[in-house]
Amino acid sequence: MKKILKEPFLHFIFLGIVLFILYGLVNKNSNSKDTIIINDFDVSALISKWEMQWKRPPTEKELQNLINLNIKQEIFYQEALKMNLDHNDEIIKRRLSQKMKFLSNDIAAMIEPTDEDLKGYYKEHSDKYLTPPSYSLYQITFSPDNRKDNYKDAVETLKQFPNASFDEMKVWGDALPFSYYFEDIDANELGLQLGSKFPEGLKKVAIKQWAGPVQSGFGVHLVYITEIKAPTLPDFELIKKNIIRDYEYDNQQEINEIIYQEFKKNYSIEIDIKSEDFDPKFVEYLQTELNN
Amino acid sequence: MKKIVLIVLGLTLILSCSSDKKADSNQNETQINTSTESSNTGNATSVYWGDTHLHTDLSMDAGAFGNRICMDEAYKFARGEEVTSSTGLKTKLSRPLDFLVIADHSDGMGLFPAIVNKEKWATELEEYPRWRKLYDEKKNSEMALDIIFNFSQGNFSFKTNDPEIMKPVWESIVAAAEKYNDPGTFTAFIGYEWTSLIAGNNLHRNVIYRDNGDKAITQLPYTNEDSSDPEKLWENLASYEERTGGQVLAIPHNGNLSNGMMFMEETISGSEFDEAYLKKRAKWEPLYEVTQIKGDGEAHPFLSPNDEFADYENWDFGNLDLSTLKTNDMLEHEYARSALKIGLKYKTTMGTNPYKFGLVGSTDSHTSLSTADDNNFFGKASNVEPSKERWDHPFVKSEKATIYTWQTIASGYAAVWAQENTRASLWDAMKRKETYGTTGSRMQIRFFGGYDYTASDLDNLVDAGYSKGVPMGGDLNNAGDKSPTFMAYALMDPENGSLDRIQIVKGWANADGSLEEKVYDVDWSGDRKVDANGKVPSVGNSVNLENATWDNSIGATELKAVWTDPDFNAALEAFYYVRVIEIPTPRWTLFDKINYGAEFSDEVPLTQTERGYTSPIWYSPK
After folding, report:
1. What is the pTM of this model?
2. Nearest CB partner across the interface for B12, out of A15, A98, A245
3. How far is CA A195 from CA A200, B388, B425, in A?
4. Which CATH number fits domain A131-229: 3.90.1150.10, 3.10.50.40, 3.60.15.10, 3.40.50.300?
5. What ipTM goes with this model?
6. B28: which of B168, B258, B261, B618 is 20 to 30 A away, CA to CA?
7. In this predicted structure, what is the pLDDT of residue B16?
């Protein structure tokens, strides 16, 4: 079935048929002779609805009752339509405009994106999928827990041992439960582990040398950045599921808007506000904004 | 009309043509990962943060309160993306969550959208004209409260479990979870809330599936309409597991609104406890949601007069709809610590502990936005999203009492120690209770119990912890002539307050049946000395009320201790859990004051101490 739905030609024919039927229904008044037909489909639908609720089929009497209720409702509905009771009913308005939105949602959902669509979307929104920069770095922590002035200690340690080897520097920091060496860790992950200040601070220090102090959520650090990898775009296949999800969400919003704007072109909106209570500038604004 | 049809036709044509060109039927199938296998062996090395209790506009009360955003937004927000709230505010989390359970009320699932959309079944309800009128007059919260009151009193004229209504809604919930579940990155659990209410007393449970959609889709959620009796829920869950081979668990919450019914000492139907009942409760409800927006439920000052931290954001006013006010005799059957103690009593006398639960926190937010940060708190429901006036809004109001919005708290999250971020790995960790709850802060807490820990094991905490004992949620037995030793460790949330102290809370059952508790301070910041009453003095309060800042230097970044129970009696049932207290930080009300110029009455607190509660480790002589 999914395959068939993807065939563009059938897709088109199908929509055509649906719209033809819809159109027919809307214009029913002109040739219908007020006949209400209860067919197999209607009766089975009534029965299955009953069964879902009561976990058993209806008795003959109950079924008869259901059909009667249904006919009654249909007749009232038809008569109400003839009397134009649906006009200017706020609830009906809202419901019908919502149905139009569902229709556009359905249209959006029927158009399954091709890989080409998705790749286009992926390129266009590449900033959304860019990985953060990633770092390989050594760090030692100066925790305020056991020091009077951890910032000063860090500054002095750096002054004293600007060229210390990784092994030598290690001993001057405090033990906290994260690594001395982080290999190829992205900035977001560093932010989660050490607080968002830390990756922000890394942007400001020189690489390939001991530098700092850099603030984190736990104190200050001296860092030796061995490598920074610039943001990259992950392979399409790797994040395809995300792309589909985002594409569908955006597409639905967009199609809703396109359809609305298309319809709107057929209407000119006039603002007829005379009360002095409203600022004339506001009225003018409405008039120009709403017709754009 | 003709014209409109033509336009639709035209648009469709244009749209289908544009997709024609690109048609490529090769790789269009959406991949759905149907595997629930995972690496669940080895030590739990990572802590994952999430919310097990979030409502979207599918919940009848959430929709009525003005929630207009749904599951897409809920998942996007939890994953760290920016979304627009129901009141039009753009917002994002300071840090993404690792997992989310959208737990909409199973009763009346989809009722609200149906009222808005005027679906036929909804318009036929006796209540429809009344609700419709309130909705059309934009009296959303009145409508929501009307729904809550009448539902909680069992006054609905209609059935809230009509499968015809529930089925499409359940299908959409399952589909959304499948869509946003990314094993390894973000876990979207399938779940729902069973909204049991007996005369307004809250007995709610959130049901969480380990399974993927293929199994979960085969059975509709259980409802309060089906039964308000948890035993019936468990039967339903058992039949689901038996039929599908799947796995589910249930997490109760808000004992504080149950008027003594959450942790009763008889069954809901009024029978005496028997072993089968005790076992079922322990099996199906391995966790309790100890803290959330509607109050913190760890301890109550009436029950724990010697615990100076017990008086924390408790809601002890009455039941969920305030139809019956609270009396002190109800409290012992409402609070987690007390329930854990009652559980020991049944373990001693009947051999099974019905209240052997671990702890998590969650929000129970009805805004589709899982916010537990005080500086970004979107409130309990969409009618109290951030604004100058929200604090004064009556949140629950009856003839007998009123609970105001300022009394809600920006709490909490669930922390789960697991091997990887998948449904299977996280669910298994919940089942074995390797979890803790916080009031929103993301502090890291480890807790291990054994007989052989030494101070040097703190340097090798995780390996030593697992190899020489059990983690939070575990069991110790038969001590012989030894005393149990515990390792407690906490690392502050790098975006939040530093730490005041780590405490170990012990509860035990004496041979004569009496129940006792004691709170031990095991490590604390600075060089404070234990006072004459055996207490560590207060850490102070550094919050600047003018700009909502504070000074972390009064607390510690990390605290740790190896602690041996000095009062241990190997013959008595006992439990031990860790409570970590942060230094005082701004409460969400202070941010409302600064950001929106809210002007409060004096009773509104402006600071608070965030805390974390671990699952216990139990000791049994047997």
Report:
1. 0.81
2. A15
3. 10, 30, 26
4. 3.10.50.40
5. 0.79
6. B168
7. 37
